[in-house]
Design brief:
mainly alpha
């Protein structure tokens, strides 16, 4: 794959319209695992930056903020990064449980690319919020559906299911496993269900 800006945008667009084909293309790339881990860390940082921008543009009501958990940017970045790492392992493990054949490196490269697509959509949402918070909100809901469609197809190709039902099952199991792991990390950080400051 080439990585000029135009081809990058084309690949993002195809990830939405032809997710299965793009998944096969991405899986054929020859990235070293160290580079993929670096890319995953980078998307975690960019994710936190975009979330911070979104919160600045559309802050939560005071009542909700008082009920929430306040984390430092560094801690939040670590938490997002840990969530992504857990999700990679969970997608690989859950898929294997259901008879999938995806390797760890294939899982890692696909999940990194999925996060890149997600970041592009988040960035577009931030720009739309600047124009109209309503349009930004609608775009956010549409993006969620698009990302679900994208990741189900990615998982289907990754594990060679040829059965999107199994891909959905893998996604659900992976999310449950990731949520349990994230809850453990929050407990270690000392963040309880009633909120707190780290």
């Amino acid at each position: 794959m080439t990585f000029d800006f135009q081809s990058f945008l084309n690949l993002v667009g195809r990830s939405i319209t032809e997710p299965a084909a793009v998944a096969r293309d991405v899986m054929q790339t020859d990235w070293r695992r160290e580079a993929l881990w670096t890319a995953l860390a980078l998307v975690a940082v960019l994710n936190v930056i975009l979330i911070a921008l979104m919160q600045m543009l559309s802050p939560l009501p005071d009542a909700l903020e008082q009920q929430g958990v306040v984390l430092s940017p560094f801690t939040y970045t670590i938490l997002v990064g840990a969530f992504l790492v857990l999700f990679v392992f969970a997608v690989k493990g859950a898929g294997r449980m259901l008879g999938g054949q995806g390797s760890f490196d294939q899982t890692l490269v696909l999940m990194v690319w999925f996060q890149v697509v997600s970041l592009v959509l988040e960035a577009a949402q931030v720009l739309l919020v600047l124009i109209s918070p309503f349009l930004g909100g609608v775009f956010g809901m549409v993006s969620l559906g698009v990302l679900l469609w994208c990741i189900v197809n990615f998982i289907d190709v990754l594990h060679g299911f040829e059965n999107r039902g199994k891909a959905v099952g893998t996604l659900i199991l992976a999310l449950i496993g990731t949520a349990m792991g994230a809850g453990l990390i929050l407990a270690i950080l000392g963040v309880g269900a009633t909120g707190g400051t780290v």
